[in-house]
Structures are given as structure tokens and as C-alpha cells.
Design a protein that fits this description.
This protein is α/β, with parallel strands linked by helices. It contains 15 helices and nine strands. The strands form two sheets. It has a five-stranded parallel β-sheet, with helices on both faces. The chain has a four-stranded antiparallel β-sheet with strand order 6-7-9-8. The longest helix has 21 residues.
């Protein structure tokens, strides 16, 4: 029984510090994000001075550095003396309801009060009284804010709280992959927003290469990874979506593959093998967490991509594009088969925009001459892979089999 445990304390000959290669690691300097960091600080400055500032919403595809930049700014702010502001950073995938977010705030700043059993009204009033005590400003940074189940209630509560606060205030910072998430809010909630907006562009291949070189210098032992392997990992990620998290995942996984094979150095071969594995993990993460109707739209695209189309599809090399109207028709049929009411074409267009923002699909306008002016859609991942993920998570086996047979 000793053999499986024999390598636990064995020193790695590939890695110097695995943590540096983690997407959750915050380096001392975030490359190519100075402008975004400066803007975050600028928009937060009134609140940091104890004034009622505007809310801030930060948008960008996965892996563009939104969360890292926000955490970096928060860490630097906490080092400043005599601030009139308090900050709560909330991961909304964990704290995914208004109650949980408010309870997280009390846990951060009033831990003795944060006990089970208090209702939302009690927690809300305690936060208001705590702010009023000395006129402080509470900054609530909500990472992946769009996944909060009762988002309307949360936004309304945090924004309208300023009407109940006599001295001080609350600033909300929302971070989202979906540029149109506010459109899903109730008009009552939208009307309470008074916000700045900041967009994060994807990294290009050169930028990703520099980021990986910087991380690899500290993450790998000297001479244990080839320069070409680093450039290749950056190119893989840039081709997919400019996702720095994907680039780091590829690099880290390539090191693990080299270690498992007892190799002396990470080469392009290990990077290529790692890219295939990482691609599958990213696809699963993206699709599995989609709202139901967006899952149905992606499933419709996967079905049409794999089964053929009522109309002639447009092909470009090995890429296949499908007419948007055809996708909507298949989506509506899928929704009906599950006894759901299909969303309107207006909502459908917003969902398509969100899916492209997340890197799951690619679209472009056809221009005139192809059944009129229409949008063409291509799935960014293998259709069979996407179908399998959705069938496991959304449909039961009978529904999936029956629909696929249509």
C-alpha cells in the first residue's frame, strides 16, 4: 500500500510554484490592464472619499481579467490609511441570492451579528444602521452578478438603500460576462441604477504570450519549458477567445502531462495535448452554467450543425454557419417539447449576443443576397460534445433521445 503514496513528498522537477499558474493568482502587476485598473479606481474614488458615487458595471468575456483587476484594486485599497469606505467582494456563484449576499456583507463587517435565523429585513436594517453610525460608504463588488437568482430584488435593495441611509451610502460594482444582463432586469430595478460602465477587451495572442512568459518564469523551474511551447499555448487561447484563464490552464496542464510522463521539459506536444483537454473542460463549464433558454438555443445550434438543415447551409472552408431564423425555429420547437414558452425574437437576439460574448458561438451578418439580410451563426465547439453536455444536464434520457430523433 505504500507505493501510491510514495510520490506525495517528491519534489517536482517541472514546477517551481504551481500557484503562479493558477487563474486565481493575483500577480503584483497585471499586464495590459493598466487602463482598466485606472478606470476602476477613478470610478470608485468618490466612494473611497466617503461620497455617494455612481454604481459601476464591468463587462467582458471570460478570461479578460475583470475579476483579477477588481481583486487587485481591492487589495491595494485596503492598504490605504483612514478610508471612509468598507468593501465586500462577493462571489455570486456561491452567494447566489439577495439573502446570501446581504448575509455575506454582515459576515464581512459584523461577524458577531451574522448568525442564522435573521430575516432579510433584520439584516437590511442592521446594514443601514451600521453605515449610519459614522457615515461610511459600503462598496459591494458582485462577481458574476448575473447568476443571482433574485437579481431584481438584490439590485433594487442595494440601490434604494441610499434613500434610507442618512449619512454615507452604498456603491454597487457588478461584474458580468454578459453585456446585456441589465436588459433582463425589471424596469423598476433598472430605473434605480445610476451607473458607469467599463468594458474589458479580449487579450490578443501577443499579450497572452507575454502574460504566460511572466507566469512561466516563476511557475516553472529554469529550463523546464520551451519558449515555443509558451507561444503555442498563447496561440491556442487567442484562437478560441483571448481567454487568459484558458491560456493558463493549458500551460499548467501541459506541465502536469510532462510530469506524469517523467519528462525533463514541457514541449509543444504536451501543450497540444493539454489544449484538447482544457477545451473540453471550458466547454463544459460554459454550457453547464447557462440559463435554461440559452441551453436550448445552443442545443438547437448543435442539432442543426450535426444533422443538416432545412435550408442550404453556408460553409466557409470547414466551418459551417446556420441561419439565425432556422435556429430560432428549432429552439421554439425544443421549448414546446419541454412545455416551456419560447422567448420572443427580441429576447432571442439578446441571448445570441450573450452566447457570442461568452465565446460559445460566432456570428456575422450575411449582407444582401442570402435570403435577405440575416445573421449567420456557427458553434465554436464540436456539436456532439455540446449535445452530450446539454443532454446530461437539461434533458432526461427519454426527452433527449426523442428530440434528437426529430
Amino acid at each position: 500500500m505504500a507505493e501510491p503514496f510514495s510520490n506525495i513528498f517528491k519534489e517536482s522537477k517541472i514546477f517551481a510554484n504551481r500557484e503562479v499558474l493558477s487563474p486565481h493568482y493575483i500577480p503584483n502587476h497585471l499586464l495590459f490592464r493598466d487602463a482598466q485598473i485606472n478606470n476602476i479606481v477613478k470610478f470608485m474614488t468618490p466612494s473611497l472619499r466617503g461620497e455617494r458615487g455612481r454604481n459601476l458595471f464591468i463587462y467582458g468575456k471570460t478570461g479578460t481579467g475583470k475579476t483579477s483587476c477588481m481583486k487587485y484594486v481591492i487589495d491595494k485599497i485596503r492598504e490605504l490609511p483612514s478610508l471612509k469606505a468598507k468593501i465586500s467582494f462577493v462571489n455570486c456563484r456561491i452567494y447566489n441570492s439577495r439573502y446570501r449576499v446581504l448575509n455575506k456583507i454582515t459576515s464581512d463587517h459584523m461577524p458577531l451579528y451574522a448568525k442564522r435565523g435573521y430575516g432579510i429585513i433584520d439584516i437590511y436594517e442592521r446594514i443601514i444602521n451600521w453605515i449610519d453610525e459614522d457615515g461610511k460608504v459600503l462598496i459591494v463588488a458582485l462577481d458574476e452578478v448575473d447568476v443571482v437568482r433574485d437579481l431584481d430584488d438584490l439590485v433594487y435593495t442595494l440601490t434604494r438603500a441610499n434613500s434610507d441611509i442618512k449619512s454615507g451610502g452604498i456603491m454597487m460594482v457588478g461584474i458580468s460576462n454578459k453585456v446585456s444582463f441589465k436588459d433582463d432586469l425589471d424596469p423598476r430595478s433598472r430605473s434605480t441604477l445610476y451607473e458607469n460602465e467599463l468594458a474589458f477587451p479580449p487579450y490578443n495572442s501577443k499579450e497572452l504570450g507575454e502574460i504566460l512568459k511572466d507566469r512561466a518564469a516563476n511557475g516553472f523551474k529554469s529550463g523546464r519549458i520551451e519558449g515555443e511551447a509558451i507561444s503555442l499555448a498563447a496561440a491556442h487561447a487567442a484562437k478560441e477567445s483571448g481567454d487568459a484563464r484558458l491560456a493558463l490552464k493549458i500551460l499548467s496542464k501541459a506541465g502536469e502531462i510532462a510530469e506524469e510522463k517523467d519528462l525533463d521539459c514541457v514541449t509543444s506536444k504536451e501543450v497540444n495535448d493539454a489544449a484538447k483537454e482544457a477545451d473540453e473542460e471550458i466547454a463544459y463549464d460554459l454550457v453547464y452554467t447557462l440559463p435554461e433558454h440559452q441551453k436550448l438555443i445552443v442545443y438547437a445550434i448543435a442539432l442543426l450543425s450535426g444533422q443538416g438543415s432545412k435550408y442550404k447551409k453556408l460553409t466557409e472552408g470547414t466551418d459551417t454557419y446556420i441561419f439565425s431564423g432556422e435556429v430560432y425555429s428549432r429552439y421554439a420547437a425544443l421549448a414546446d417539447s419541454l412545455h416551456r414558452e419560447a422567448k420572443s425574437s427580441r429576447w432571442y437576439r439578446k441571448y445570441i449576443s450573450d452566447l457570442e460574448m461568452q465565446g460559445l458561438i460566432v456570428t456575422y451578418e450575411s449582407g444582401k443576397g442570402i435570403r435577405g439580410h440575416t445573421k449567420l451563426i456557427k458553434l465554436a465547439y464540436q456539436p456532439d460534445k455540446i449535445k452530450s453536455i446539454i443532454e446530461k444536464g437539461l434533458f432526461n434520457e427519454t426527452e433527449a433521445t426523442g428530440e434528437a430523433a426529430r
